[in-house]
């Protein structure tokens, strides 16, 4: 095991006692809030830095993009190519993003989550930097391979990979560090989780067009609301480090309402657009998927966002991501089919 990073006494709160609880160990490996187990395997520590729990929306975004292209077919070749694009969007580039974010957030994590790999000293800084560059290099190489398969005259997917990598950097790193601004940072995060993988999946099988780009960027405003949910777990550290997250700027209660309104209103606006392009069945299905999200917001999140943020996300987000697929199918079935 790597020696802990040197720091003057009192700079960090004492680390929680490691536990062998299996549930905690699983949360630790997935990169979830509330983990406390002391992991010693360097490969598990590297995986923990990549936060596998965060890959799921990006992988799903590729599915939505393939659906919106109107040209995906259930052949072995297209399924394998889709899986490669999911590997690009999830483990490689999201893993890069999460590792980069942990690198630049190590001081904040020392306050909020001192058991994370970097502040706990479980992995050295050179090892973390090496992981960042490896994941980025593999991601760009795979993106270029996908462009070659798709026959793109312009390397669209490679451009998306490089653009996403740059966005991840300016989100986490000074001097811009977009995450210091609650609105810009959360929208950048929402667009990264919804629009970017959607565009990659769409470009793999069809041609990106301005209508799809605008609609998915609009849909990303609902993703901004989801990103705000993640700010509640680190509100104390954000306040101490001067980060202007929405819970810090507006208070817990007001930020919770901003969060749920963003999630609901912009999904509803997409449903209204589907009605406008005569995709009424898809619009009704999307509305039916918004209703349980509103119910769960009232049952859990609005009552106590600090205690129930993880529970709310686990129960409500499946309805949101199913709604994304419904919208993707509607786009591919309607005006956006190419």
Largest sheet: none
Number of helices: 14
Strand content: under 5%
If you consult CATH, what is the topology?
A: Farnesyl Diphosphate Synthase
Q: How many domains, as an integer? A: 1
Q: What Rg is obtained from the alpha carbons, in whole angstroms?
A: 20 Å
Can you give keywords for this protein?
globular; mainly alpha; disordered N terminus; 338 residues; 0% strand; Farnesyl Diphosphate Synthase; 14 helices
Protein architecture, described:
This protein has helices at 22-30, 42-50, 55-69, 76-104, 106-112, 125-150, 156-172, 182-205, 210-231, 235-241, 246-250, 252-276, 280-301, 305-333. The protein is mainly alpha-helical. It has one domain: Orthogonal Bundle (Farnesyl Diphosphate Synthase). Helix 3 packs antiparallel against helix 4 and helix 3 crosses helix 8. The longest helix is centred in the N-terminal third of the chain and has 29 residues, at 76-104. It is globular and about 50 Å long. It starts with 21 loop residues before the first helix and ends in a 5-residue tail after the last helix.
Please specify the SSE layout and strand pairing.
Elements: H1 22-30, H2 42-50, H3 55-69, H4 76-104, H5 106-112, H6 125-150, H7 156-172, H8 182-205, H9 210-231, H10 235-241, H11 246-250, H12 252-276, H13 280-301, H14 305-333
Helix pairs in contact: 3-4, 3-8, 3-14, 4-6, 4-7, 4-8, 5-10, 6-7, 7-8, 8-9, 9-12, 9-14, 12-13, 12-14, 13-14
